[in-house]
Predict the 3D structure of the following.
Amino acid sequence: MIHLIGWIVFAVVIFFLVVNAAFMLVSPQAWFRLPGWLRTQGALTEAKFGKGWGALQLRITGALMLGALGWVLYQFMH
């Protein structure tokens, strides 16, 4: 039973990471419009990270998150 709960928690965490990273990469402004319970915003503000250099930083973060997640899943499967 605990093993099943562990896999469910793992799937939920992966889901949240993928959704956040994809929105960060594709559209930082749309990422700020996600519901608060889904967005892992922390102290980031749309005024600072919605456009320009801040948006580029957010896109890079999303790409790094997806890349790291892909690498971990690849290693997990092999």
Remarks:
- Residues 2-34+46-77 form one domain.
- The chain has one domain: 2-34+46-77.
- The two ends are 25 Å apart (CA to CA).
- The chain is about 75% helix and 0% strand.
